[in-house]
Amino acid sequence: MAFTGVLFPATATGAPHRHRHLDPFSPKPRRLSSTTRTLALPSSADLPVLDAPVALAAASSVAALAAALSLSDPERRRRQQAEDVGGGDKEVVRDYFNNTGFERWKKIYGEATEGVNSVQLDIRLGHAQTVENALSMLRDGGPIAGLSVCDAGCGTGSFSIPLASDGALVTASDISAAMVAEAERQARETLADRPDIQMPKFEVKDLESLDGKFDIVVCLDVLIHYPQGKAEAMIAHLASLAESRLVLSFAPKTLYYDLLKRVGELFPGPSKATRAYLHAERDVEQALEKVGWRVRKRGFIRTRFYFAKLVEAVPVGLA
């Protein structure tokens, strides 16, 4: 599926709500190895000590921001979204990605630059880095040709297609029928001259409906649509489908990113139609540990408007 940009929406002219223009491009993604490559956030010991006047000013700013957040009432908007489609988060997500969200994210995940603003280009870059780093994780573990892989929440096929090109036997699914149709179209177009590989099998399914057994299960940029309680259940379900490896990406919950998300909610644009849930890395690890899995590799992808933790987990007994 899609990873929602949760910071700042674009203006009508395509410029983000920032005080200065930012170049959306950053260096190319690096391959991940079995060692941890995580960009660490500063600990409290690394932060400067504020004197009394500065601390008071900071506290006043935080109080003003909290008041503004309260007045914006994002929860009321979210309840209205659910009422409009006659359901909860899942129904909101399905409706969004079958309608206005499909056109938006098809454009973001595509290659054209016309009509794509700087924020969308930056999110495209971040998602592309996540895909590339996830592929690197899998390839570093050995050849994936002939392995069965479940791409849960496949979106427009940005991960399924290169997996199939590597020779993996891919089953890809998404909650959005529009996304699945687009993924199938792109797969046929991209892999048409590859009679040596098997085309991905695409299905319209939500995460709860997935079944079967696969060598590898991958779920990129989907957990952002699930609150922590449901995300824990989804992680357990995805782990039950995997024989040897599970790769997940999620938006990390830290004080800094949570604040940015809340500030972004002050400026709800028409394209921001789904909730965005952040998850603490330790919560994800604990969810995996409860079902007998452990994190073996980690990564952190960050651009200006996109941020994601990437983990590869294996069964505890697997070396």
From TrEMBL:
UniProt cross-references to Pfam families, sorted A to Z: Mg-por_mtran_C
SUPFAM superfamilies documented for this protein: S-adenosyl-L-methionine-dependent methyltransferases
GO molecular function, one term: magnesium protoporphyrin IX methyltransferase activity
Claim: Membrane is one of the keywords in the record: no
Keyword S-adenosyl-L-methionine: yes
Key words, A-Z: Methyltransferase, S-adenosyl-L-methionine, Transferase
Magnesium-protoporphyrin IX methyltransferase C-terminal domain sequence ranges: 219-314
Biological processes, Gene Ontology terms: chlorophyll biosynthetic process; methylation
NCBIfam families registered for this protein in UniProt: BchM-ChlM
Protein name listed in UniProt: Magnesium-protoporphyrin IX methyltransferase C-terminal domain-containing protein
Organism: Ensete ventricosum
